[in-house]
Specification:
The chain is of the alpha/beta class and about 400 residues long. It folds into 2 domains: about 5-205, Rossmann fold, CATH 3.40.50; about 215-390, 3-Layer(aba) Sandwich (Rossmann fold), CATH 3.40.50. It contains 13 helices and 9 strands. It has helices at about 5-10, 30-45, 70-75, 95-110, 155-160, 165-185, 225-230, 255-265, 280-290, 305-315, 335-340, 340-350, 370-390, and strands spanning about 20, 55, 80-85, 120-125, 215-220, 270-275, 295-300, 325-330, 365. A 5-stranded parallel sheet has the order 6-5-7-8-9, sandwiched between helices. It starts with a helix and ends in a 20-residue tail after the last helix. InterPro entries: FxsC_C, Toll_tir_struct_dom_sf. It comes from Luedemannella helvata. This is TIR domain-containing protein.
Length: about 400
């Protein structure tokens, strides 16, 4: 690099010093405060213009293919990756993909003959539920940034008596970030497609909770593509090129419903997978064998598609306790509101067995994203209770729901 390039880089005009990764919905106010404090300390130490962004705060709420250009650019060019580690963090696929992108940049540098810098920096945000060996990462030099007394960082931020220790930690981390960036220049990624990358945490041979595999939740999207739905209804704004792209609440959340549901599952420390409706029978069978949960996300309109209707009709009486059915629709969707009575009846007709059994089964027509989030949480807890009665028990870190699921029948 020339002296001019070095000068520009130190001003933050070429590459950010750090990328801050964290789990969604996890003390967002304190995460923002930490990001601002660390940025200010780096600017002061590196003599950087106060208006220049020296880092990037990942919102970590994107489970679908909706990574903005600035996030991709920051991840491709940042010199240090700081991960605010918690049990939820390692169950969030967007965090796993971001971690994997940076880890691959380190591996490529080493394979090209360079020295791998200690630039992937784990910081313990919450130690609850984390085993001692969770930092293991093949071929990557991980060096945890310890807090004074090894307190959780969120504890240092929350309690006034830790203010001095918190300031010392921020100063120490800022020094490490600057020195790592100056001594080891990590080349930017030439090609980066975060949306299609594999979750690095899924590749691990061990599981977060010791030898026991965390319970998995299967989201089956019973919806059509935009092309398929064009012959069914007029308003196609809720659909994409894949059935998994279905987004019934675009005004509240731009990402697909299944992606948003995955972030809800992570709050309960559940890993989740998303599959289209043509995998329904196999997924239910596999879930039953492993005492796992299946949640059907049903677009009432899609029941008019033969493939969706046949798949729902295939569900039998033996699936109670493993399957929850949620049928969300937006109050702003006037076309659905106009035809709701007929759509409602068609969904019930497509579920001849399950809609008659209230024990362990949740059928819910949900009119807002908030309702969906609440009922999904209830469905998870209800299904776990049913599985506990039929199989082995699982802990529910997310706590008890505020109310029990309600079956909305004829």
């Amino acid at each position: 690099m020339t002296d001019r390039s070095d000068e520009l880089w130190l001003k933050g005009e070429l590459m950010p010093y750090f990328f801050l990764s964290h789990a969604p919905d996890e003390d967002a106010i304190f995460v923002e405060r930490f990001y601002q404090d660390l940025s200010a300390e780096i600017r002061k130490r590196a003599i950087v213009d106060p208006h220049v962004d020296v880092g990037y705060l990942d919102i970590a709420a994107r489970e679908g293919a909706h990574w903005p250009a600035d996030a991709k650019a920051a991840l491709a060019g940042c010199q240090t990756f700081i991960a605010l580690c918690s049990a939820k963090y390692f169950l969030t696929s967007s965090c796993g993909r971001a971690w994997g992108v940076f880890a691959d940049r380190l591996r490529k540098l080493e394979s090209a003959g360079g020295q791998q810098p200690p630039a992937l920096v784990p910081v313990i945000w919450s130690s609850e539920g984390l085993p001692e060996d969770f930092l293991a990462e093949e071929d990557i030099r991980l060096a945890r940034q310890h807090t004074p007394g090894d307190e959780d960082l969120r504890v240092l931020l929350r309690l006034r008596r830790h203010r001095q220790a918190y300031r010392a930690f921020v100063a120490s981390l800022a020094h490490r970030v600057i020195q790592t960036a100056r001594v080891h220049r990590l080349p930017p990624a030439s090609e980066l497609n975060v949306d299609t990358l594999e979750n690095a945490f899924e590749r691990r041979s061990r599981w977060l909770h010791g030898a026991q595999r965390p319970q998995r939740l299967h989201f089956i999207v019973c919806a059509g593509t935009r092309q398929q739905m064009a012959s069914i209804r007029s308003d196609l704004q809720y659909y994409g090129s894949r059935s998994e792209d279905w987004s019934p609440f675009p005004e509240a959340s731009p990402q697909p419903l299944a992606a948003h549901a995955g972030s809800i599952a992570a709050r309960y420390l559940l890993r989740s997978v998303v599959v289209p409706v043509n995998g329904l029978e196999d997924q239910i069978s596999a879930a039953r064998a492993r005492n796992e949960i299946v949640v059907l996300l049903v677009d009432a309109w899609a029941v008019r598609l033969r493939a969706v209707r046949d798949a729902l009709m295939s569900m039998g009486r033996g699936d109670e306790g493993y399957v929850a059915v949620l049928v969300p629709h937006s109050p702003d969707d006037r076309e659905t509101a106009t035809h709701w009575e007929a759509l409602h009846r068609q969904v019930l007709d497509a579920l001849p067995h399950t809609s008659q059994h209230r024990d362990g089964f949740c059928w819910e027509a949900l009119g807002s994203l908030t309702d969906f989030e609440a009922r999904l949480g209830c469905a998870i807890v209800e299904a776990q209770q049913q599985i506990h009665r039929r199989g082995r028990a699982f802990r529910t870190p997310g706590g008890k729901p505020t109310s029990r699921p309600i079956i909305d029948g004829p």
